[in-house]
Request: fold
Amino acid sequence: MSELKKKRVATKMVPVQSRAIVPDRDADKSPILECHHLGIDFGGLTAVNDFNLMIGRSEIAGLIGPNGAGKTTVFNLLTKVYQPTRGTILLDGADTSKMSTEQINRAGIARTFQNIRLFNNLSVEDNVKLGLHNHIGYGMWGGVLRLPRYWKEEKHAHESAMELLKIFEMQDLAKAKAGSLPYGAQRRLEIVRALATNPSLLLLDEPAAGMNPSETAELMDNIVRIRDLFQIAIMLIEHDMNLVMGICEGICVLNFGQVIAKGTPDEIKSNPVVIEAYLGKKDKKKKKEAKTDG
Reply:
């Protein structure tokens, strides 16, 4: 049995308040994220409705569903790219309703995107340093005049960036241009830059997109390692079900903007409502007929 499989088997999800479940190691701690009746409308279209979710402080959670189910919209609500039409988001117990995207990032949520968003003409190290902006201790004039505080902070930023790059064994690429990296390495760099903001919740939007099986397996190991090393929660949107079922502890399934199921990987993959949402009634019937004919 692989180490990842052992870890998932060893994790027990236990019920807490509001019929939510979190890993047993988080049961005696307040959740890092709570969403209550969250929703957003675009004109007359309801994109997300009555979304409820709780994530434990060190949980690896999955948000899955068919294309167009509203998954990325949920991420945009959590990071305040969109302001919700209704509902409440609590981050570490604090109401985020009046926060901007920048304030949310400073409060502890970092994310990656479906489409990689790196500064391609900057070095790998400089991309990571941009993620460290929350921790820079000198002002504009300190940077312009190159005061002693500037050099001290720059030395610290360099050391921090290199330490983060080592997580993905990318320290030797520090001086390379981000745009020159292979696709998989660019994906990893985006995660490193997000980690540089020192999040308590890391949102990964399709982190395995475009990766081959070997790169995906390495990514799975790294996600678990990040959770263990930084003791943070991670929520990911992903279409690779091997990845989702392999590392996620709790899974939430969306369809047409509404939650249709929540549970452990074993519960989700055997849930008939989830199966129908992915396959559709007609496809299921064809599959059954093919199985009978065979």
Observations:
- Residues 118-196 form one domain.
- Confidence is low (pLDDT under 50) at residues 282-294.
- DSSP finds eleven helices and twelve strands in the chain.
- The CA atoms of residues 40 and 85 lie 5 Å apart.
